Amino acid sequence: MTQVSFVQDIQPLSAFRSNVTGFIKQVQMTQRPLVITNHGRSAAVLLDVAKYDELLEQLELLQDVQTAERQIAAGKGIAHDDALKQVLAGIAL
Asked: Strands 34-38 and 10-12, how do they pair?
């Protein structure tokens, strides 16, 4: 994800309310998230839909890797050669 610009990408809720369309266009154009603050504290983040989908895909992949690591640590993994033999046996059906 593109780095947040502290000057452009952090806006108070009042500014966001008065220029919603402009901020949505900014997020779409820059591909950077917009941090919305309320009373000086971060309150929400506005993301481009494609960037959001990308983040979800990355998260899912990382969760799959963690699951695989736990399975290997628990002795549930199989050697590459054995996996290859099983795959090739399935193709030969």
From this structure: parallel
